TrEMBL record:
Its cofactor is Mg(2+). Residues 149-210 form the tRNA nucleotidyltransferase/poly(A) polymerase RNA and SrmB- binding domain. Keywords: ATP-binding, Magnesium, Metal-binding, Nucleotide-binding, Nucleotidyltransferase, RNA repair, RNA-binding, Transferase, tRNA processing. This is tRNA nucleotidyltransferase. Belongs to the tRNA nucleotidyltransferase/poly(A) polymerase family. It comes from the Bacteria. Residues 3-122 form the Poly A polymerase head domain.
Amino acid sequence: MQVYLVGGAVRDELLGRIIKERDYVVVGATPEQLIKQGYQQVGKDFPVFLHPKTKEEYALARTERKQGQGYTGFVCEFSADVTLEDDLRRRDLTVNAIAKAQDGNLIDPYGGKQDLDNRILRHVSDAFSEDPLRILRVARFAARYHYLGFTIAEETQQLLTQMINQGELQTLTAERIWLECEKSLTDGAFAEFLNILAQLGALSAISPALAGNWSDELYQQLKNRYAYAQSQNITDQALLFAQATASLTQEEIKILSQTIRLPNDVRDLALQLNAHQATLSSQTITAQQLLRCCNQLDLWRRPERFEAVLKAVEINQAASLANQKLLTATKAAKAINPQQFITQGIKGAAIKTALEQARLEILQQYFN
């Protein structure tokens, strides 16, 4: 039984990046052998096991055979006879098909180290085209390593284009597309991810409207917004994703939210930013406009919602706004207690009217 470090950990180590997780492949072993040594099997279809102490993933060397459509139509075949080279051949990119032995030696049958040195993302074999998810994965890797000068090999671009033209992206589930978006947001390279998809003709898988609106100007705007967010250590995915949809209409955002099955909080903030960014970024905002915005966002019961939209507007403008004045004014308006009107003998619907007027008068002390 031989154990090798594989995939992303080897790639990032060679690139001098922080290794976030380590995956291992085990050659020449059976499930029974690993279980006997205390490994815990996870999943029934794939021979993946958790180390008894470190809980890191150890997978038996395997091959995959396409059977059916989409990215899930694979039959996994594994045995003690599957070689390391066989296992590495099923991987997507050469830079992800490098293994490291326990003595530190690299096993690199498909030239991944050279492609790393040359900053090239190249598919390992023609089996690449059997998995449409790899279209998004390659775009995500190209975006993540864009700052290092990585580009997609010409032959891989041609294969990706062929897959896209054949409608392979339509076989992906909405949830899986969102997961790739989520990973790219975490990478801090979402503008690059969208731009690469646009160049490949694949951005419509996320949003036909966004694909139709895409331009170099929008790309630069998004880069500026994300650079600002990074400078402010903003990592909330709802705040970041909303920047990409700020140019869409409410209806287009709703369609997008179904196309890639956005989490509710991400969808809601995208819609709220779209609805209120013009008002909250205005240099001439009035108390009446601010009160209307507060009512629509239900600031009185959900102040965190207003604050999130305000932060999203700040990122959208890529500059700190007069946020403190807005927050101070709305906090003062929120502090008004309806009980004071009840004490005055005001009843029923008149309480709401009096409360609204009192809040407006507070806001008018800050905005005319």
